[in-house]
Amino acid sequence: MPKLLAFDTSTEMLSIAVRNGDRLVEHDGAGGAQSSATLIPLIQGLLAEAGLRLRDLDAIAFGRGPGSFTGLRTACAVAQGLAYGAGLRLLPIDTLHAVAEEARHRFGATQVMALLDARMDQVYAAGYDLALPLETSEAELLAPEAVALPAGWALAGNAFAAYGPRLPVAAPRLEVLPTAGALLRLAPALLAAGRSVAPAEAWPLYVRDKVAQTTDERAALKAAESAA
């Protein structure tokens, strides 16, 4: 079992985990704007608790996105800085893949459409058949009603409170977030398959290239909602 550090700051939750053989230590707590200030001290504390130094690790896994722009930049920058200093490889893992894995781990779902709230009346979406752990899907940015769900698949993520009535209804809905624990479970197979990269080759996955609507776009959306 490789010695691994993993963390995700793509959502409102900050999630960190360290594995040293059979020993697993984890932290899940408030994220958001706090992540940039608390991430490194928490990592140092968990490494010490697991009996590891940074240079003892085989790799660092991080949630590369999609998700909060600030959160993705924080995770990538910290992963790169730690890896450069310790001479480590990085495993950038899609946050939607981590959502699907968390749904498998907690609820036993093996065919999952992972969704994260992208704000601006949209969701990030990707489907995963977890019987094929190395198969990944390209994340899409969609209107909730545009999500197409194969028969027998489950929905998983954090988009139900905001968009529930507009998502496919004939499917289980599993409330989960991407976690560092999910990243750790995905990491060994990805590492063995040669998916790790040098720090300079690790980048966030944004999917969306704009983060705010213009005044005209907001006005048009408001008019459409009023008409509806």
Could you explain the architecture of this structure?
The protein is an alpha/beta fold and 228 residues long. The protein folds into two domains: 4-94 and 178-201, Nucleotidyltransferase, domain 5 (2-Layer Sandwich), CATH 3.30.420.40; 96-175, Nucleotidyltransferase, domain 5. Helices cover 33% and strands 25% of the residues. It is built from six helices and ten strands; from the N terminus they run βββαβαβαββββαβαα. The protein has helices spanning 35-49, 69-86, 95-107, 160-163, 180-192, 215-227; strands at residues 4-8, 13-20, 23-30, 59-65, 89-94, 111-117, 123-129, 140-142, 154-157, 173-175. The chain has a five-stranded mixed β-sheet with strand order 3-2-1-4-5, with helices on both faces. Strand 9 (154-157), helix 4 (160-163) and strand 10 form a beta-alpha-beta unit. Helix 1 crosses helix 2 and helix 3 (95-107) packs across helix 5. The longest helix has 18 residues, at 69-86. The protein is globular. The N and C termini lie far apart (55 Å).
Outline the secondary-structure elements.
Elements: E1 4-8, E2 13-20, E3 23-30, H1 35-49, E4 59-65, H2 69-86, E5 89-94, H3 95-107, E6 111-117, E7 123-129, E8 140-142, E9 154-157, H4 160-163, E10 173-175, H5 180-192, H6 215-227
Parallel strand pairs: 1-4, 4-5, 6-9, 9-10
Antiparallel strand pairs: 1-2, 2-3, 6-7, 7-8
Helix pairs in contact: 1-2, 3-5
List keywords for this structure.
228 residues, alpha/beta, Nucleotidyltransferase, domain 5, 2 domains, 6 helices, 33% helix
